[in-house]
Specification:
Blueprint lengths: L13 H13 L4 E3 L3 H16 L10 E5 L5 E10 L4 H20 L3 E12 L6
Parallel strand pairs: 3-4
Antiparallel strand pairs: 1-3, 2-3
Helix pairs in contact: 1-3
Protein name: Asp23/Gls24 family envelope stress response protein
Family: Belongs to the asp23 family.
Pfam families: Asp23
């Protein structure tokens, strides 16, 4: 009896990885993904195309994905954090969440997660 091997190949787009990363980062306490100006400009066109097709797109703004030659993903995430937590600790939590969720959802190896903190929400003091 001969045993066969079934090999499946899947292709994951950068926008799928970005959507998973946005969801993972937003799931960290005190974090919201912060789109930059270049993200907003690019998202307007993508959103219009998807709406014409009747799709309800997942948010991807604030995340950039680059695929490495070895098939792994290098991910950049721009965030705003609450002023309640240490920035370095929060960034490490985002790195861990994005790495775990992207691996779990897509099967991709994550080479790196670069977290940039663009804003800190400082709570207002009431007089």
């Amino acid at each position: 009896m001969t045993e066969g091997v079934c090999v499946f190949e899947s292709v994951v787009s950068g926008s799928v990885v970005a959507a998973v990363a946005v969801n993972a980062a937003n799931g960290v306490s005190g974090v919201r993904v912060q789109p930059g100006l270049s993200d907003l400009a690019g998202s307007v066109a993508r959103l219009a195309r998807q709406r014409v097709k009747g799709l309800d797109p997942a948010p991807t703004e604030g995340v950039r994905v680059r695929f490495e030659p070895d098939g792994s993903a290098a991910i950049e995430v721009s965030i705003a954090i609450s002023g309640q937590d240490q920035a370095a600790v929060t960034a490490r939590l985002v790195q861990a969440a994005v790495t775990k969720d992207v691996r779990t959802a897509t099967g991709l190896a994550v080479r790196s997660v670069l977290v940039s903190i663009f804003d800190i929400d400082v709570p207002r003091r009431t007089p």
